[in-house]
Amino acid sequence: MNSLPASVTGVFYWIFPTKFNKTIAVSVGGMLAFLSFGHRTSTKAVEAWRNGAMRFFGDSTGEEREWNRGLFERIGRYLEGDSDDFRDLKVNLTGYTPFQQKILTACRRIPLGETKSYGELAAMAGVRGAARAAGTCMAKNRIPLIIPCHRVILSDGRLGNYSAVGGKKIKAELLENEKKFAKLACLE
After folding, report:
1. Rounded to two decimals, what is the model's pTM?
2. Measured between alpha carbons, how far apart are the two ends of the chain, in Å?
3. Can you list the alpha helix ranges (DSSP code H) found in the chain?
4. What are phi and psi of 63, to 5 degrees?
5. Cβ(165)–Cβ(39) under 8 Å?
6. Tens digit of pLDDT for each residue in 161-182?
7. Can you tell me the distance from the alpha carbon of 75 to that of 134, in angstroms, rounded to the nearest whole number?
């Protein structure tokens, strides 16, 4: 089990409703460390946290209602179809290997409305020829949307898998929404 940096002061979560049912966001040391959406109940959302990332951060100290209300509103609007690239948000990548951190950081640079193949993502991270490893890393992404793994597709243009609740259907919807905003931005 990875230990937390000494500067980490707390692990907090907040469950909030979005278009895709219950969403859980977890803050560790004031940085987003986990996000999961599409859960039918709050209990299922907490189970996703417990099964997904708790081994890296330990149990939460409880629900924090004021942690970052603006973030939750932004996520909700994004899932409704609004434009947001979330690049300004700090994320906690504790528990990922240096290689995985490179891949996740490169993924955050994929522009809104664009896609890259797993091989292109690996090349963006400086590790050419590591398409399969990049795909494995995307499957382990515990901060989807913020680290936009839905923008990573197969080299033949097919969507590939999406580990969030709802899978490929949700991935396709997110990409379609983003393409609309990218087209509007070009017209302005």
Report:
1. 0.84
2. 49
3. 42-52, 54-57, 69-80, 98-107, 118-124, 131-139, 167-187
4. -75, 130
5. yes
6. 888 778 889 899 999 989 887 6
7. 25
